[in-house]
Each structure stands twice: as structure tokens, then as C-alpha cells.
Amino acid sequence: MNTEAIIVDWGTTAFKAWLVELSSGEILASTSNTMGMSRLDSAQFSQALDQSIGCWKETQPELPVYMAGMVGAAGGWCLAPQLPTPLSLHDLSKNLMQVPNQKNTWIIPGARVPGNNPDIMRGEEVQIFGGLKLSGKEQALMCLPGTHSKWAQIKDHQLVNFVTSMTGEVHQVMLKHSVLGKSLVLDQQTASSEAFEAGLAEANGETNVLHIMFTARTRLLAGSLDEHQVSDYLSGILIGAEVRSMAKRFPPESQPLVLISGIALKTPYTKALERVGYRIEWIDAGTASCEGIREIINITRSS
């Protein structure tokens, strides 16, 4: 039996993979590229995988591959199930889907909230359970920001509920396809903590997010917002609105909120979360993905 495995987080816009030692969790090598689901049709996934991890397979052709994310969506390689909440790591491990005509290659199921207010996720479920293991908790409230930000409740080692906010996607759509981005050169936007904080302040003081989004335009025209800082100002508004809304649903408690993200989103979300009273415990998203999938692999092998 192999002591190593290849773990893949295959999203809409990016491919990330790690060669992992299963017993210790040590990351032996890693790779990433922009061959996300949106750039491929179903017939191209096998070749894209070979191009991305072929160097590892050359020396160990029997290495198993475990994948999570949009690779299992309707527009991905092949459709994997989305298991209803509440669900556990064991539920995910029992429902792995083998990729047809691909040796030792598996897709991990996504998750869904059933009922009259359904919700879905692919990829975050492994980060949630990885983050749970890394934090040493049995229950937690987690925030997983991104294109579609997720807030998740875990109780007794089970994912019991989650809520999605389209924060990152709305930010991109508004800058690229609305009056807010008109006349801006998007690749000349610069980081500005001052502009971000101003956006947060607007979001905390006004409940009508559709109105305060428009202030990104009016402030620019009035000269109180630099044209290179519109992106961060709008980001402050949208992240602030998301966090304010979720704080009403999941009020801050004595136990820290677990923030699972990449480095780029760590600081802005920490600022927004602490502003409304959360204490933060941060875990890197890639590390959480690896740990969650490694746990699933080990459960599968021991059963």
C-alpha cells in the first residue's frame, strides 16, 4: 500500500496539488496552475491532470489521486454527489467516486443543505474538516471566504449547516461589468487599507448595501476616492456587509471563529470580523484542504 498520495483542489479558475506523506501529513511537493474547470471541457481533464502531476507519476505510477472541488461539478470532469447535511468525514469517505477509465483516481463528494432554503458547496467541505482537525475542536463556527464565501456550523464533528454569500463574485462583476468600474484600469488598482476601512465603515453604518455600493462611484466623481483604490473600497463594503449579516445569524461568542483562507484574504476578513466582535483563529486554506483529504484517505484505508 502506498504511503504517499496526491491531493488535488481543482476549482473553477485554479488547479492546486500536493504530494503528501499520509501518516505524518508532511507535504513533500506542491504545484499549481490556472487550468481550472472553466477553461476545460470534460474531455480535457485527464490530459490537464497528467500535465500537472505527471512528474510525480513518472517515478511512482501507482500513486493514488484524491480530488475535491469543482472537478466534481456538472461542468467538471464527472458529476460527484453532494451529500446532505448533517454529514461527517466518514460520510465523505464512504461516498468517494472513482473517475471512469482513470486508475486510482477519486473525487470527493460535495455537500448540500436540503430543504426549502438549499445551499451547496464543493471543495470547502474538506477544508472544514481539515480545519476542525487542525484546530482540535469538536464544534466550531467557520468562515471560508472566496468567490462564494461560506459560513459553516460544525457540531460533534459533523457539518450541520452552512450559508453562502457571493461576496467575491459580486466584487468582480461590479468592477468589470457595471458603472462602478467604468473608466477604471483594473490592473492598476492598488492596495489601500484606508480605502478598505472606509468601505467597512460604510457597511457597518448603513443596511442598504445596494446604496452604499453606489458610493464607490459617487466618491470617485466627487474626488474623495482615488481611482486606484476603488477595488479595495468596494471590497470593504461587500466584506463588511457579509460579516454584518452573518453576525446577526451567528452572533459572536466566547469561542473563536475559525477563519480558513489564503494569505490574501486573511487581513481584510480579520479586520471585518474583529470589528463586529469576533475573536479569530486563522488556518491556511491549502493546509486545511490537505489535512481534510488526508483524513478521508486514512479513514478509507482503515475501513
Total DSSP E strands: 14
| Dominant shape | globular
Strand order of the largest sheet: 3-2-1-4-7-6
Q: What is the terminal-to-terminal distance?
A: 14 Å
Q: What proportion of the residues is helical, as a percent range?
A: 40-55%
Mean pLDDT: 95
Structural class: alpha/beta
Uncertain segments of ≥5 residues (pLDDT<50)? Answer: none
**Cα-atom Rg, whole angstroms?**
20 Å
**Count of DSSP-assigned helices:** 9
Which series of helices and strands comes N to C?
EEEHEEHEEEEHEEEHHHHEHEH
What summary fits the major beta sheet?
6 strands, mixed
Q: What is the percentage of strand-forming residues? A: 15-25%
What does the model show?
The protein is an alpha/beta fold. It is built from 9 helices and 14 strands. The chain has a 6-stranded mixed sheet with strand order 3-2-1-4-7-6, sandwiched between helices. Helix 8 (263-275) links the parallel strand 13 (257-261) and strand 14. Helix 4 (167-177) runs antiparallel to helix 7, helix 5 (193-205) crosses helix 7 and helix 6 packs antiparallel against helix 7. The longest helix is centred in the last third of the chain and has 20 residues, at 230-249.
Give the secondary structure arrangement, pairings included:
Elements: E1 4-10, E2 15-21, E3 27-33, H1 45-59, E4 65-69, E5 82-84, H2 89-94, E6 97-98, E7 105-107, E8 110-113, E9 119-121, H3 124-135, E10 140-144, E11 149-155, E12 158-165, H4 167-177, H5 193-205, H6 209-222, H7 230-249, E13 257-261, H8 263-275, E14 280-284, H9 285-302
Parallel strand pairs: 1-4, 4-7, 5-8, 10-13, 13-14
Antiparallel strand pairs: 1-2, 2-3, 6-7, 8-9, 10-11, 11-12
Helix pairs in contact: 3-9, 4-7, 5-7, 6-7, 7-8
